[in-house]
Amino acid sequence: MISTGKPPFRRRSAGAGVAAILAAAGGILVTAPAFADGRAEPWQVGLQPANTLVHEHIHAFADFTFWIVIPITLFVAGLLVAVMVKFNAKAHPVPSRTTHHTGLEIAWTVLPILILVAFAIPSFRLLYEEMVIPPSDMTLKVTGYQWYWGYEYTDLKTDKGKSVAFDSVILDENKRTDPVRQPRLLAVDNEVIVPVDAVVRVQLTAADVIHSWAMPSFGVKMDAEPGRLNETWFKAEKPGLYYGQCSELCGRDHAFMPIALHVVTRAQFDAWAQAARTDLDAAYRQLAQMIDDDAAKTRLAAR
Length: 303
Ligand SMILES: [Cu+2]
What we know:
By secondary structure, the protein is an alpha+beta fold. The protein has 2 domains: about 10-95, no CATH class; about 140-300, Immunoglobulin-like, CATH 2.60.40. It is about 40% helix and about 20% strand. The chain is built from 5 helices and 10 strands; from the N terminus they run αααββββββββββαα. A 5-stranded mixed beta sheet has the order 3-2-1-5-8, with no helix packed on it. Strands 4-10-9-6-7 form a 5-stranded mixed beta sheet, covered by helices on one side. Copper (II) ion binds near residues 144, 211, 248, 250 and 254.
């Protein structure tokens, strides 16, 4: 089952009013800028579009669960209505003395078990997929601080033999010049740069309190705990800018420690990585230039 990234209930309209609201919301989504894929949209309902296979499977599991839950809800609601109509004191003055029904009791025990098993099998499969890290192309170490994130590229060494590492702090309001490229409360000074189609092993810890590194469009959310090393992974399928936030209440500025992750091509990543060994600021400037140049080349080729 391939998910479209849209919430399942947008496919059906319960009434004209609801349909109009949904159509309006859909219009907002359609007119949004192309690279806004990796963040929540105004009026968005449901999960963000998937940029990893794991998140596609999360979408599919959410849809699957939804279509099991809806019939059960309707069935139980229908039973309640039937009981109220058929068995009230006026319609049914002499109550039945039935107390046991073996067949019915077996049915209402076995059926829920079967339903739970139907949930459990895809659920465990998904958990396994999230937890078991495939052979990785690179490792990213993430440290949560009150209230920003620290990143370390453990495979990437500077001339002095240290890993390339930097802090990623929310961008000051007065430094935000481009409202689309630098969304409010999500833009940071130093973005995480990762190559597209690469398995990134993420190791997480924290230096003070528990934080949680969450990247909705990747289907990743993992606690970063002091004195403990947690692991997760992702393999981004599309280049672009993706945003996440700390998802564990960690204190005063919990809401102001966003995650900005830039997925770039392998060539762009290699160039950034090479430059980052000596000068991080220059590496970011060079990357921005390279992305602009590559985009211009693509536009030329398309003409
Ligand atoms: Cu936090």
